[in-house]
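Reopening this one. Same input as before:
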Amino acid sequence: MRPPAGWSHREGTLGRPLALSGHGLHTGRRVNVSILPGNAGSARGIVFRRIQDGRVLAELPVSPALRRGQPLCTMLEASGGVRVRTIEHLLASLLTCEIDRATVELDAEEVPILDGSARPWIDAIRACGRVELPDAKRFIRVLRPVKIADGEGTRDERSISIEPSRVYEMTVRNDLKGFGVLRWDGVLTPASFADEIAPSRSYGRVKWAIPAILAGYVRGMPILRGARLSCTAAIVGNRVVGGMRVPDEFVRHRVLDLVGDMAMAGSPLIGRVCALRPSHEMNYRLVAELLATRDAWEWAEFTA
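Same output, byte for byte:
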């Protein structure tokens, strides 16, 4: 059998190290990131490594077990309290560029937001090239439906589910006052993610951002301190400052975040994800529930 169309049957890693710098969306702090290639002898998956003054503070393998709740982003926390936050765009990019083994070093808490989308990560990863590894690539094949829902039957309902499919596909619906109901349906492949999803930016209403920033200062929890017009699709009234980059940009960015959060499972999925008003918290709950329901999935490997 072959893997789903568009995906490789072998694991891969970067052809050379990658280095990027930028500032965090929430902390506002400058951060330097280096992504180091893995090899056939290294551990499977993506590992974050926090460094400071040349010293390793902690290593955090991507796992739902290390995920901690945080507003407006996805965060990992080691047992000693060392954190890595806003990892979702990078995880989505590594997954869809089929970088299965790598170590991400960073000298601050937050992965840089860059232009608010996954496009810079995709471009940088592709520029490094992909080296195929000898191990068969692993997929998580969904065997039966799993669903998470809040407020079912009410106007504020949120839900997310996954069910068996022959490919990795998504249906995501979201609504936003002034913009109506937005929807994206499609098969997720490295090519479709890069072309249709990666360019979409983080977004928000300017009138909501200022109170959130102030509340973050009061609680000692940095929120949106690095938000700028250069890294967000800023909404004023019923328009986006400077216009949308792609059609239905808001729901496409929800897909981007969902792909990154589902990458916490450790491998691409073979299943259909359906989401109504998804959030980072809902995405995490689905990943955790799926992995905990051992008869709902299996590992799948394919020949050439």
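So the earlier flakiness isn't reproducible anymore. For the record, The domain at 10-300 is CATH 3.30.1700.10 (lpxc deacetylase, domain 1).
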